[in-house]
Structures are given as structure tokens and as C-alpha cells.
């Protein structure tokens, strides 16, 4: 067993007061509890620290005098460390590593970095992109303080703070006959060639939309790349279901795309969240980054509403 900081503080208080009763009042503990703590400390160190005098308090032994000096120094170091940790958590400087779901990153991360550089120039935000499984693993092992992600298949050791709901839509090439509709049902789509965004959990989410109508889609291609999906659709290889709406209808290959809403009774909103480990207390840096993300997504939602 090792001595605790509490026992060391008790030792110094009794040495300063020279009476156990006075030290107990100063420390707001009972006299028996203080006496027991001192006895335990002497047992741990195998050294008598005090000579007890009836009605006259206590005096330090030679060993107690020597150990008192070192104990004071150790407590000063502990206090300095506590101050340093408190300052570290409250300052908006240094590094913070955050995760981002791969399809969300292009929409929000550049603006986050730009805003953070303006508001907190000494804050260095490091980004790790990944799918849901990768982000979850890195939150649980402490590599990430937080992650901008989707709230699918939520883990019991991760806290999810909701930001917004993202509705699925149909992605079609501009020339597709179904582009004449203002909205589409899954019954109109399941016989068409389907290009699936096949990321962990995400693919299951899109397939579950078809399961609720009792049909299986005709999967023509699978890809883990958001832009590969868009280019394949633009090339006329099929349709896709996605959640994140870009501000352009152009694919990388120059093709033009149409984004058409699903019928409202067939949509299942996908929550956009900030995720963090339930046992990790957010630092000041994490709290400020979270606030910036809230602001950016709220502004994006307002702009989208105004456009509609």
C-alpha cells in the first residue's frame, strides 16, 4: 500500500497545528478519522512520525521532521500539477484530434477549420476520416476526443449529441425518365439497377429502407466511395440512395445529376451527431469545437431552408 495525498495533507496539518483536535477542525474531519489516517501512514512508512503527549498535543520525531520537509515539497508539486491540468483544460491552445465520417467531411470540415483558425488561432485541429466502425474504435481507445458522425447502431460506451437529421434522397442521372417526378417511392425504384454506398452500417441502413416495403433492390454495383457512386450514377449505371446533399449537381466526370426526395412516408431520418466516449470529460478545446460544429450545421440548415 502507498500513502495517499490525503494522508500527506493530514500529516502536514497535524505537524503545523501540533494538536490532532485543532488539525481535525481545520480539515473538517473527525478526530478519530484523522488519528486513524496518521496511524495508517506511520504503518505504511514503517516510521513513527509523532510523539503523543497527553493534554499537550504532539511533537515530531526526528524522522517526522525529515519527512515533513519532503512531504511539503511533494504536496507543492501536486498542487502545481493540478493547476497545470486546470489551465491546460481551459486554454484554447494545442492539439485536438477529432474524427469525421467520410461523407460528412467535405461538407463541414473545411468550414470548421477556417472558423477555428479565425476564432482560436493557437488551436490545431487534426482530422481522422473513417467509417462508423473506425470512428467508434478510435473513440473507445481514446485516440479521438470527439467525432462528427451518424447515430447509427449506437454503442453503449459512446455518448451521441444530436445535431440535425439527414433525409435520404434518390440520386439519378439527369436523363433518367424518373426525373420528371417531384418525389419518388421505393416501389418505383427496386427494379432499377441500384448502386449501393457500401460502408459499414451505412449499407445496412439503405437496404433496410427497401426491407420495410418487402422488396429487395437490384444491386448492380457497390462502392465505399461517395464520389464514385455519384460518377457511376451520372454515367447511367443506375440510381443510388444517399443522405448528404452537395451544393452541386455535377459529378467528377462532368455528368449532371438530379437529387429527388423520397416519399415522406418511406424516409427514415439519419441523425448527424457529435460522438464522444461516455467516460471522457470534454476539454475546453472539445467544447469549443463542438460549439463551432453546431453553428456551422445550423447555418447550413438555414441556407438550405431558404433555398427551398
Structure description:
This protein folds into 3 domains: 5-90, Winged helix-like DNA-binding domain superfamily/Winged helix DNA-binding domain (Arc Repressor Mutant, subunit A); 94-164 and 271-307, Periplasmic binding protein-like II (D-Maltodextrin-Binding Protein, domain 2, 3-Layer(aba) Sandwich), CATH 3.40.190.10; 168-266, Periplasmic binding protein-like II (D-Maltodextrin-Binding Protein, domain 2), CATH 3.40.190. Helices cover 43% and strands 23% of the residues. The protein has helices at residues 5-17, 20-27, 31-45, 62-90, 105-119, 132-140, 202-211, 226-234, 284-307, and strands spanning 50-53, 57-60, 94-101, 123-130, 146-150, 158-166, 169-173, 193-197, 218-223, 240-242, 257-261, 270-277. α1 packs across α3 (31-45). The radius of gyration is 31 Å and the shape is elongated. The termini are far apart.
